[in-house]
Design goal:
- By secondary structure, the chain is an all-beta fold.
- It is built from no helices and 16 strands.
- Strands 8-10-12-14-16 form a five-stranded parallel beta sheet, with no helix packed on it.
- It is globular, with a radius of gyration of 17 Å.
């Protein structure tokens, strides 16, 4: 069973939703622009959340996602400006482009051990995120991934990462502690531009 594309988009009166455990897919934009939605609990039956599913849900504070979530679409939680906490499934392989961009109050998120890719602008503008301890297995950190994460103090890039895209840590002005993996082959332009608190870096 699916929650269809755009089904509840722009329903500004919705504050809470209960998704039945018969649902397996939340389609694109299903709850986009539900500006008064405060919390969601996605049941373990759901394996896929498509593009922009909860985009611009600006009152959303917590998102408990399915433990069986295999795929999350780009822009899924883009500009959820009140979101503070997210729990990702332990089988997720990619956090794609702009998934959490503009989530300026996000402080708590887990990075599953199965992750291989942090997509372009995935956490762009997550101004309250304190750290990004990426697990071994991550291979790519794409452009702008953590750009303007102004509270980011610590980041760990594991040995499995071969490339960091341009401006990935641009404007991380609180960053003081970063560990770069030993197999890193390419650090693109302006990756650490504006990291004014960074005292040293070992390449």
């Amino acid at each position: 069973t699916e929650i269809a594309e755009g089904l509840f988009a722009g329903c500004t009166g919705i504050e809470q939703i209960r998704i039945p455990d018969t649902v397996t897919v939340i389609e694109s934009g299903a709850f986009g622009g539900c500006i008064n939605l405060k919390e969601i609990d996605v049941p373990n039956s759901v394996t896929e959340i498509q593009r922009s599913a909860f985009e611009y849900c600006s009152s959303l504070k917590t998102a408990k996602l399915s433990e069986n979530l295999k795929s999350i679409g780009m822009y899924s939680f883009n500009n959820c400006t009140s979101l503070t906490e997210v729990h990702l499934s332990d089988i997720l392989k990619e956090i794609p482009s702009n998934t959490f961009s503009g989530c300026k109050k996000l402080t708590t998120i887990n990075f599953p051990s199965t992750l291989t890719t942090i997509g372009d602008s995935a956490f762009y503008g997550c101004e309250s995120l304190p750290e990004a301890i990426l697990p071994s297995g991550v291979e790519k950190i794409e452009s702008n991934a953590f750009k303007n994460c102004k509270s980011l103090k610590k980041a760990v890039v594991p040995d499995t990462v071969s490339s960091i895209g341009s401006s990935a840590f641009y404007g991380c002005e609180a960053l003081t502690d970063i560990t770069l993996g030993s197999k890193l082959k390419k650090i693109d332009s302006q990756t650490f531009y504006g990291c004014i608190a960074l005292p040293s870096i070992v390449i």
